[in-house]
Amino acid sequence: MNGGFPARIVDGNGDTWEPAAGPGRHGEPVYYPTTGPESWALTPTEIRTQYGIRNTS
Hints:
The chain has one helix spanning about 45-50; strands spanning about 10, 15-20, 30-35, 55. The chain is α+β, with helices and mostly antiparallel strands and about 55 residues long. The protein has a 4-stranded antiparallel sheet with strand order 3-2-1-4. Strand 1 and strand 2 form a beta hairpin. The mean pLDDT is about 90.
């Protein structure tokens, strides 16, 4: 984990998200999807709200 945040997130659809370069939002890093449909970079809270979270690592 980086700063208390996971290195990878698997959302409720089974798609994988990894950290994006650049500044985060609201004190959280942003992640981009590496599998599944394209999406804007989202924070862990936004991913949880929109897709749910199955697993983090």
